[in-house]
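User: Please fill in residues for this 158-position structure.
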C-alpha cells in the first residue's frame, strides 16, 4: 500500500451537514470556548473561539451511496465536530489524531465489517493500516476514537 491518506468529510457533504445532519436535525453552531474538538472537515483540533457544530454523520452510509454498497446493519451514525462555516480542509497529508488509542475498523467493498484493531502506539499506526490493506477484501478503514467510538476519518484502498 502507498502512504495511507486520511479522508476528511467531503466539502459537498459538509455543506449538507451544515444545513441538516444525517439524523435530519439542523446544525446548531456555537463558539468553542476551550478548543481541542477533533474537526472532521480539516482533520485538526479546534482552537478556542472558533465556530464549530456537532452534527450527526453516517460515514458508511455516505460511502455506500458513492459505491453502490449496502452496509445493512453496519450502517450507523454518530456525532462529529465540523467547522460551522466552510474551511480550507486539511493542510497536509499526515495521519491526524494518532496521539491517543484508536480503533481501526475494516470494511469490505460491500460494506460489511471485517474486523478491527486497537492501536495504542502512534508509531504503530501506519503499519496497522498497511496490515489492514494486506487483506484484499478490505476496501476502507474507519479510524475511530476508543473513548467514545466516534468516527474520526476514513482511509481507502489506494
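Assistant: Residues filled in for all 158 positions:
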Amino acid at each position: 500500500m502507498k502512504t495511507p491518506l486520511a479522508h476528511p468529510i467531503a466539502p459537498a457533504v459538509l455543506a449538507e451537514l451544515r444545513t441538516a445532519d444525517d439524523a435530519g436535525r439542523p446544525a446548531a453552531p456555537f463558539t468553542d470556548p476551550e478548543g481541542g474538538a477533533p474537526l472532521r472537515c480539516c482533520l485538526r483540533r479546534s482552537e478556542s473561539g472558533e465556530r464549530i457544530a456537532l452534527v450527526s454523520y453516517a460515514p458508511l452510509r455516505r460511502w455506500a451511496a458513492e459505491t453502490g454498497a449496502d452496509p445493512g446493519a453496519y450502517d450507523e451514525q454518530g456525532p462529529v465536530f465540523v467547522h460551522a462555516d466552510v474551511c480550507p480542509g486539511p493542510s497536509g497529508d499526515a495521519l491526524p489524531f494518532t496521539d491517543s488509542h484508536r480503533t481501526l475498523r475494516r470494511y469490505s467493498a460491500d460494506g460489511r465489517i471485517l474486523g478491527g484493531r486497537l492501536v495504542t502506539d502512534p508509531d504503530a499506526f501506519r503499519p496497522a493500516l498497511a496490515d489492514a490493506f494486506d487483506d484484499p477484501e478490505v476496501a476502507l478503514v474507519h479510524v475511530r476514537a476508543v473513548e467514545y467510538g466516534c468516527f474520526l476519518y476514513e482511509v481507502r484502498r489506494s
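For context: The two ends are 7 Å apart (CA to CA).
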